[in-house]
Each structure stands twice: as C-alpha cells, then as structure tokens.
Amino acid sequence: MGQRNKSSPTRSSNPGSPLYNKGEFTFESTRQFGPTKQRRCTDCGCLFIFILFLGVWASLIVYFLNHVNIEQVVFPSDSFGNVCGKGEFSDRPYLYFFNILKCAADIEGTIIDGCNTPQVCVKECPNITFSVGASNEMRHIELEHAICQYGIWPNRNNLYQLTQKELCAKYYFKSDSVGGRCIPSILHLINDRLFDEIRNQSIKDDSSDGSVTAEEIVESNKAISKLMQALTLANHLITDIIRTWKWIAIGLILTMFIAFLWISFMQWIARYMVWVSIIALFILNSLVLYYSVDQYLDLVNNKSNKTDLADLNSIMAKVVHPNEAHRYLRTSRREPDMMDFDFKSLLKDSLEPYLGSTKLWIILAVVAGIGLLVLTMITFCLCNRIRLAVAVIEEASKAVNNTKSTLMFPLVPFTLKVAILTFALFAFVTISTGSQARYRNQLTGTACSPLTEIDNNCTKIRPFDRSLVYLAHGFNLFALIWVLYFISGLFYVTLSGVFADYYWTRDKRDISFFVLLNSFGRCIFYHLGSIAFGSLLIAIVRFIRIILEYIDQKCKKYPNNVISRFFMGCCKCCLWCLEKFIKFINKNAYIMLAVHGKSFCSSAHDAFQLIFSNGMRALVLECLSAFLLFLSKLAGDFDDLNYYWGPLGVYLILSYILTSSFFNVYDVAVDTIFLSYLEDCHINDGSNERPYYMTKSLAKVFGRKNNQAH
Q1: Residues of 518-537 as b/e, b for ≥16 C-beta within 10 angstroms?
Q2: Which has the closest alpha carbon to 350: 315, 299, 314?
C-alpha cells in the first residue's frame, strides 16, 4: 500500500476518529485506535424528540384511562358500562352478545366502536341452540332460556316482539366462556350430523323476515371460527406443555449447551460448513435436474397420461374446494379436530394431479439447471471472496469466545421488548374500550340504563370521535414500532463496541472484564440520540408499509381494479427494498457509531464509503454469514418428525428463538470485525509506523503482514 499524503490533515476532536486530508484517510501516530474514549453526546435533538414522543404516548394512554373504568379493560362489561362479576353483578360473571355475528361481520368496527349489538351480563352461558319463533314446540324452552336486557320480563305473548326491538336475544348458540365472554361452540365444532342440517336451515325463523342459514352464519363469522380454532389449538397445546414441560426445559438447556459448543467450534468448522454446503447444493441441484428430466421422459413415453398444466387450476380448485375438504373429513367419521387431522393424506391427494404434468417437470428441470449454472459460476468466480469471508467469520467466533458475557446480553433487550409489547397491548385495549359508546346519566355522569331510568337523562354517549380513535391506534402502533427498533439499535451498538474493543486490542488478554458494561455505558450516556434517529428511519418506512398493506387488504374487495392493484404492488415492492437498504446502512452506521462516537449521519457516511469501496467482499460476507448462522440455528434443534407435534413444535420454536438470540450476537461480531478490518486496511499499511491491528491468522488469509512483529 502506497504512502498517503499526510500534510495538513483535518484533525478530529475524537482521538479514535479517522483523520481526513482531501477526502483520504490519514494517520496520526499518537491517535488511539478502537472505540474512542473521549466522547460527546450525539444527535441530542433526536433524543429530545424521542423522549417527548414517549411522554405523549404515555399521556395518550392516561387520557383514555380517565374516560374508562380500568375494570372495563380487564373484565367484560355490558352495553351500559357495568362490569360483569363485579358489584351488583357479582352473580353474573359472563357477558352475552345478543347477535355475535354482527361482531364478526365488521371486525374493524368492533375494535373501534365495540360490537354493535346489545350485551348483558348473565349467570351462565347458553347450553342449547335455538331461535325464538322457530317452532311452537320450543316456546317453553324459549321462555326458560330467554336472555333479555335488565328490567325486561318476557312472557309467551311478547317474547317475539321484544326480540324485534332487541330487548331480548333472538338467536341462542351453545356457548363456551372465553375470557368471561360467551362464544358459540357451534362455530368451531361442526360435526357430520350438524353439517347437513345447518347447511340449509340450521336455525329457521318462521317469521316474515325469512331464515338464517348456515351459509350466512359461516360467511359472516369466519373470524370467530378462526379464533375458536386457535383457542382450541391453544387449549390442546397448553395441556400438552403442562404434561411435558420438564422435557421441554431439559431440551432447551441442551439446546443452549449445543449453541455454546457450536459457537466455540465455529472458528474451526466454519470453512468446512461452507464448502460442504456448496457441494451439497451442487448434488441437490444435480439430483433435481436428473429426476425432473427422467420423470418428463417417462410421461412423454406414457401417452395415456396427458395431463396438461392448463388444467391444473381446475384440478386444484376441486382438490381444495371446501365441500371436498369436508367430504374428506366426513370419510374419517370423526370431528375435524386440528390435533389429529391427517395432513399427509390430504397433501398427497392435493399433489398427485401435479405430479402427472409434463410441463411441471420441465419447469423444475429448467430451474434446477439454472441454479446449477449460477452456483458453478459463483463458486469459480468468487472462490477467493468466499475464502476471505470464511476467515472473517472464524475471527468473529474467536471474538465471541473471548467475550462470552455478550451471549447473555440478549436477555436485556428481550425483556425490554416484552415489557413494551405488554404496554402497547394494554394501550390498544384501553383505547378500544374507552372509545365504545356507553349509556351515561347527563346529570351525574354515572352509568345508567334507559330501560330503568324514569326520566330522559340517560343517553348514549360516545367519548371520542372515530377519527380520534383511528389516530390513537395509529400513534400507538407507530410508537411500538419505533421503540422496538430503538431497543434493537441499543443492542447492536453495545455489542459493536465490545467487538471493536476486541479487534483493536493487540494483546487479547488486555481486554477488560467489564468490556460489555463499559460499552453499554458509552451507549447510554452518549449515543441514545443517534440510535433514536436510526430507529426512526426504519420505523417510518415500516409504518408506511403497514398502512399500504391495510389499504391493499381493502382493495381486495374490488378484484377488478387491476391498475390500482398493480401500482399498490409496485409501491409495496419499492418500500420493501428501501427498508432492507436502510437496515443495512443502519447496522453499519451503528458499528461506526460505537467505534468513533460520531453522529448517526457521519457514521453512516463513513460506513457507506468503506463498504462501497469493498462491495463484492461485503456482499459475499453478508450472504455467507446469513447462511451459516441459519444453519447454526437449526443445529440446535432435534428434528423428530414422528414425535407428537404439539410439544415438539413448541420446543422447536423456543429453541429457534433461543439459538437466534445467541447467533444474533455472532452476527454483530461478523459485521463489526469486517468493518474494523476494512478500516484497518484503509488507515494502516503494515509499516513500523502504521502496523495492522488484525490478528496474524486474519492477516495471513488476506495476504497482509506487518514489517515488524508486535
């Protein structure tokens, strides 16, 4: 590396910051490498905005809490604001909806305004399904099980008229209590006998307004059906987890132990993992190519099989049609419980028509062939780049092994994220509950019922305008996104400081025992503003993406509007790319921030210059590190596909989250080591005056060496 012009360099107040002369890095012999010790607060304005934003968020929740009884947030409450199971309703702990189908028909309206149907507290949920006026033989049952608003006492002569005025419930479903609310059991447990009965006239109404068929029930209540399926599944899972929690805990401990071992050995096995994976991909693509061509030739020779790809849409429509799915369930003569559903048989029946398509095998052969060609070109053209990327990954493993305390640090951001998610959920429920219209006495402001008040002072009052409620929900969502990304940034900057300390320390034995605590302290005292700035950029893009996704879901109601759907897809694609780019810039800016203590924009500029001048190295390292870390996360799992799927699935999910926490630390180490290496090469040249700080093993792989041993 040639000598750089060192005349009149621009000095920085930070001894650890790079010095520039006409856009070039220069070296000062007295400067201090590694994380800068003398720092100043960065992006203070952004920190002030962030703190102010948090204050507004908290004030918003307090404001809504002042307009709602806190018990109404925790416990079910009726249309008049009375809390079921409390006070004079202590003997009525359950909430019943007169027509719960209205809740499911407009989920968005239910969230904003509450369910648009009368709701009363009851002693127990209905245990029978019927409709008032359906049959004369049911009159005695109707009176016995009738649920009406408070102060209404029906008889044989006026029950039907009361249902027309929504003073009494007209439809009754056998229900279960879910969170103190009566949810119809029929919506998630339709057996063979009920299916044919309900399909056309499950709940018949002899009145002039016709009948309520199962088609209407199922169509208007898809959301509740899915909810109940999820609740049923959750109930089974909880039961299985309680029975097997000891084994799950033992498995997670073993997973954590394996993750520790994996990280420890990564410095020796990383290169073998890369090349074995590349060879495996070669073999896999070759096998797919050979098998696809072989199947295609067999189908061509067998003229009796003339299935065409053009017919596949109709075939699939038949396979996955709800009637076919139900017929499949009916053949088993059992209730369609999700825990014992035979997915393998249904999957086999669904795929069988595709396997007879010649065009399908042509497509697979072409894809496999292109994949094989691209893989071959990448391997031969980027072989040296892959070797260098592996060296950085191995060095990152050494860094993690030298600072094992970093592996426990993810517990801090995880705990903070759980707390923020809990607060945001509480805020969501508070806003939704406080926005619902209630009956209030105009004189006293207390809850009342228009049926029992003798004067006209009991009126229905909506505390907030709909637009304000929408705005509050949007603000709560944006605050959640921003704070979550802020916590992630705090995690990233802290770990970057630790691994930068490791890289820029010649004798690794000199690394402080409190290196993690020191880095965390620097981050808290000096750089919260920069983290708030970086996280704000990502939060804005993510929030816009969520809004576009919401609009796109609304537009799906109008499938013929092709032009708007096209532009919507383009916008979503562009924003996805923009978000990925900002995340990439952010993480590298965080590394430079942790090392040099500059503002966010300056750190992003320095990081971008370093990476842009080494674009191919950065690309290969990014892909390889992501691939290796993904394999490492899977290595902590015990795949036993024959094991009962509930507890096993929970274990696999938890173990993946656990290993992800460990290997996210590893990911930060890889990025920090790589960026530190680039800066080391840019500033130093291996001479006695400017020796490299990289380790000997890293210098050997990159073909660099110091003129004098240090």
Answers
A1: bbbebbeebbbbbbbbbbbb
A2: 315
Closest CA to 1 of 703, 652, 610, 685: 685
Q: Are 25 and 596 in contact (CB under 8 A)?
A: no
Cα 104 to chain centroid distance, Å, stands at 24
With beta carbons less than 8 A apart as the criterion, state whether 21 and 3 touch: no
Amino acid at residue number 575:
L
**Alpha-carbon torsion, ordered 252, 257, 260, 266, to 10 deg:** -100
Question: Higher model confidence: residue 218 or residue 191?
Answer: 218
- How far apart (Å, rounded) are the C-alpha atoms in residues 273 and 280? 10
pLDDT digits (tens, 9 = 90+) for 123-179: 888 888 787 876 666 677 778 888 888 888 888 778 888 888 888 888 888 888 877
pLDDT tens per residue across span 8-52: 344 343 434 444 444 444 434 334 555 667 788 888 999 999 999
CB of 83 closer than 8 Å to CB of 68: no
Residue 32 DSSP symbol? -
The first and second tokens of residue 574, run together, are: 């562009």
DSSP structure class, residue 168: B
Q: Is the pLDDT of residue 487 over 90?
A: yes
Structural contact between residues 241 and 644, judged by C-beta atoms closer than 8 angstroms:
no
Q: What angle do CA 647, 650, 651 make, to 5 degrees?
A: 85
Number of H-type helices and E-type strands within the chain? 23, 10
What is the distance between the alpha carbons of residues 566 and 559, in angstroms, rounded to a whole number?
11
Nearest alpha carbon to residue 363 among 313, 317, 315, 309: 309
- The per-residue pLDDT for 198 is 38
Contact between residue 615 and residue 607 where contact means Cβ atoms under 8 Å apart: no
Q: Which backbone phi and psi does 159 adopt, to 5 degrees? A: -60, -45
Residue whose structure tokens are 């149907």: 117
% of the chain residues with pLDDT over 70: 63
CB of 529 closer than 8 Å to CB of 46: yes
Rounded Cα gap, residues 245 and 237, in angstroms: 11
CA dist 80 and 118 (Å) reads 9
**DSSP state letters, 280-323:** HHHHHHHHHHHHHHHHHHHHHH-TT----GGGHHHHHHHHS-HH
Half-sphere exposure of 623 (CA within 13 A, CB side): 14
End-to-end Cα distance, the chain? 19
Residue 383: DSSP 8-state: H
Domain spans in the chain, listed from the N-terminal domain onward: 19-63+405-701, 83-220
d(CA 597, CA 37): 9
Tell me the pLDDT tens digit for each residue of 313-354. Answer: 444 444 444 444 344 334 433 333 433 444 445 445 555 556
